[in-house]
Amino acid sequence: MLDHTDRRILEELSQNSRITMKELGGKVHLTGQAAASRVVKLEDNGVIEGYTIKVNEEKLGYPVHVMLNIYTKNTHHQPYLSFIKTQDEYVINNYKISGDGCYLLECKFPSNETLDQFLIDLNRHVNYKLTVIINKL
Protein backbone atom coordinates (compact mmCIF):
# COMPACT_ATOMS: atom_id res chain seq x y z
CA MET A 1 0.00 0.00 0.00
CA LEU A 2 1.30 3.44 -0.89
CA ASP A 3 1.60 6.06 1.79
CA HIS A 4 1.33 9.83 1.38
CA THR A 5 5.08 10.21 0.71
CA ASP A 6 5.03 7.56 -2.04
CA ARG A 7 2.12 9.35 -3.69
CA ARG A 8 3.96 12.67 -3.52
CA ILE A 9 7.02 11.03 -5.09
CA LEU A 10 4.86 9.74 -7.94
CA GLU A 11 3.35 13.21 -8.44
CA GLU A 12 6.77 14.84 -8.59
CA LEU A 13 8.21 12.22 -10.95
CA SER A 14 5.13 12.53 -13.18
CA GLN A 15 5.81 16.23 -13.54
CA ASN A 16 9.57 15.88 -14.00
CA SER A 17 11.15 12.44 -14.24
CA ARG A 18 14.60 14.03 -14.65
CA ILE A 19 14.56 15.55 -11.18
CA THR A 20 17.58 14.66 -9.04
CA MET A 21 16.98 12.48 -6.01
CA LYS A 22 18.24 15.33 -3.83
CA GLU A 23 15.65 17.71 -5.31
CA LEU A 24 12.95 15.05 -5.05
CA GLY A 25 13.81 14.41 -1.43
CA GLY A 26 13.56 18.12 -0.65
CA LYS A 27 10.09 18.31 -2.20
CA VAL A 28 8.78 15.32 -0.21
CA HIS A 29 10.69 16.05 3.03
CA LEU A 30 13.22 13.21 2.77
CA THR A 31 16.96 13.03 2.20
CA GLY A 32 18.05 12.34 -1.36
CA GLN A 33 19.15 8.85 -0.35
CA ALA A 34 15.81 8.08 1.30
CA ALA A 35 13.94 9.37 -1.77
CA ALA A 36 16.12 7.22 -4.05
CA SER A 37 15.39 4.15 -1.90
CA ARG A 38 11.67 4.81 -2.13
CA VAL A 39 11.89 5.20 -5.93
CA VAL A 40 13.78 1.90 -6.25
CA LYS A 41 11.13 0.20 -4.09
CA LEU A 42 8.36 1.66 -6.28
CA GLU A 43 10.18 0.37 -9.38
CA ASP A 44 10.79 -3.07 -7.87
CA ASN A 45 7.11 -3.37 -6.89
CA GLY A 46 6.03 -2.48 -10.42
CA VAL A 47 4.33 0.77 -9.42
CA ILE A 48 6.77 2.69 -11.61
CA GLU A 49 6.96 0.79 -14.89
CA GLY A 50 9.20 3.19 -16.78
CA TYR A 51 10.06 6.76 -17.59
CA THR A 52 9.12 8.68 -20.70
CA ILE A 53 9.16 12.06 -22.36
CA LYS A 54 6.34 14.31 -23.50
CA VAL A 55 6.67 15.13 -27.20
CA ASN A 56 5.06 18.11 -28.91
CA GLU A 57 3.59 16.37 -31.98
CA GLU A 58 2.72 19.68 -33.65
CA LYS A 59 6.36 20.78 -33.60
CA LEU A 60 7.27 17.42 -35.14
CA GLY A 61 4.95 18.15 -38.07
CA TYR A 62 1.78 16.40 -36.87
CA PRO A 63 -0.73 19.18 -36.10
CA VAL A 64 -3.87 17.05 -36.66
CA HIS A 65 -4.73 15.10 -33.48
CA VAL A 66 -7.77 12.82 -33.43
CA MET A 67 -9.54 10.16 -31.43
CA LEU A 68 -11.52 7.45 -33.21
CA ASN A 69 -14.12 5.18 -31.66
CA ILE A 70 -13.71 1.94 -33.57
CA TYR A 71 -16.67 -0.34 -34.32
CA THR A 72 -15.67 -3.71 -35.74
CA LYS A 73 -17.82 -5.17 -38.46
CA ASN A 74 -17.65 -8.69 -37.01
CA THR A 75 -16.07 -10.63 -34.15
CA HIS A 76 -12.83 -11.22 -36.08
CA HIS A 77 -10.66 -8.21 -35.18
CA GLN A 78 -7.36 -9.38 -36.68
CA PRO A 79 -7.66 -7.48 -39.99
CA TYR A 80 -8.09 -4.22 -38.04
CA LEU A 81 -5.24 -5.03 -35.64
CA SER A 82 -2.95 -5.98 -38.53
CA PHE A 83 -3.77 -2.72 -40.32
CA ILE A 84 -3.06 -0.66 -37.19
CA LYS A 85 0.37 -2.31 -36.80
CA THR A 86 1.31 -0.95 -40.24
CA GLN A 87 0.30 2.61 -39.24
CA ASP A 88 2.80 3.27 -36.44
CA GLU A 89 3.72 6.66 -37.92
CA TYR A 90 0.20 7.89 -37.15
CA VAL A 91 -1.07 5.76 -34.25
CA ILE A 92 -0.27 7.05 -30.76
CA ASN A 93 -2.42 4.62 -28.73
CA ASN A 94 -4.87 1.82 -29.49
CA TYR A 95 -7.01 0.92 -26.47
CA LYS A 96 -9.39 -2.04 -26.30
CA ILE A 97 -12.46 -0.69 -24.53
CA SER A 98 -15.95 -1.54 -23.40
CA GLY A 99 -18.80 0.86 -23.86
CA ASP A 100 -19.11 2.95 -27.01
CA GLY A 101 -17.12 0.90 -29.50
CA CYS A 102 -14.56 -1.87 -29.42
CA TYR A 103 -11.37 0.20 -29.54
CA LEU A 104 -10.38 3.80 -28.91
CA LEU A 105 -7.69 4.89 -31.35
CA GLU A 106 -5.56 8.01 -30.79
CA CYS A 107 -3.73 9.27 -33.88
CA LYS A 108 -1.71 12.20 -35.21
CA PHE A 109 -1.39 13.33 -38.82
CA PRO A 110 0.64 15.87 -40.79
CA SER A 111 -2.44 17.06 -42.70
CA ASN A 112 -6.17 16.61 -43.17
CA GLU A 113 -5.42 14.96 -46.53
CA THR A 114 -3.33 12.28 -44.80
CA LEU A 115 -6.08 11.80 -42.23
CA ASP A 116 -8.63 11.41 -45.04
CA GLN A 117 -6.58 8.68 -46.74
CA PHE A 118 -6.07 6.93 -43.39
CA LEU A 119 -9.84 6.95 -42.81
CA ILE A 120 -10.50 5.52 -46.27
CA ASP A 121 -8.04 2.69 -45.60
CA LEU A 122 -9.36 2.16 -42.05
CA ASN A 123 -12.95 1.88 -43.28
CA ARG A 124 -12.02 -1.24 -45.25
CA HIS A 125 -11.71 -3.00 -41.87
CA VAL A 126 -13.99 -1.21 -39.40
CA ASN A 127 -16.49 1.58 -38.96
CA TYR A 128 -15.51 4.57 -36.84
CA LYS A 129 -16.62 7.80 -35.21
CA LEU A 130 -14.09 10.63 -35.51
CA THR A 131 -13.36 13.30 -32.90
CA VAL A 132 -10.84 16.03 -33.75
CA ILE A 133 -8.91 17.39 -30.79
CA ILE A 134 -8.82 21.19 -30.88
CA ASN A 135 -6.66 21.91 -27.84
CA LYS A 136 -5.28 20.17 -24.76
CA LEU A 137 -6.22 22.05 -21.60
Automatic annotation (TrEMBL):
<dbReference type="InterPro" id="IPR000485">
    <property type="entry name" value="AsnC-type_HTH_dom"/>
</dbReference>
<dbReference type="InterPro" id="IPR036390">
    <property type="entry name" value="WH_DNA-bd_sf"/>
</dbReference>
<dbReference type="GO" id="GO:0043565">
    <property type="term" value="F:sequence-specific DNA binding"/>
</dbReference>
<dbReference type="InterPro" id="IPR036388">
    <property type="entry name" value="WH-like_DNA-bd_sf"/>
</dbReference>
<dbReference type="Pfam" id="PF13412">
    <property type="entry name" value="HTH_24"/>
</dbReference>
<keyword id="KW-0805">Transcription regulation</keyword>
<dbReference type="GO" id="GO:0043200">
    <property type="term" value="P:response to amino acid"/>
</dbReference>
<dbReference type="InterPro" id="IPR011008">
    <property type="entry name" value="Dimeric_a/b-barrel"/>
</dbReference>
<protein>
    <submittedName>
        <fullName>Transcriptional regulator</fullName>
    </submittedName>
</protein>
<dbReference type="GO" id="GO:0005829">
    <property type="term" value="C:cytosol"/>
</dbReference>
<dbReference type="InterPro" id="IPR019888">
    <property type="entry name" value="Tscrpt_reg_AsnC-like"/>
</dbReference>
<keyword id="KW-0804">Transcription</keyword>
<dbReference type="Pfam" id="PF01037">
    <property type="entry name" value="AsnC_trans_reg"/>
</dbReference>
<keyword id="KW-0238">DNA-binding</keyword>
<feature type="domain" description="HTH asnC-type">
    <location>
        <begin position="2"/>
        <end position="63"/>
    </location>
</feature>
<dbReference type="InterPro" id="IPR019887">
    <property type="entry name" value="Tscrpt_reg_AsnC/Lrp_C"/>
</dbReference>
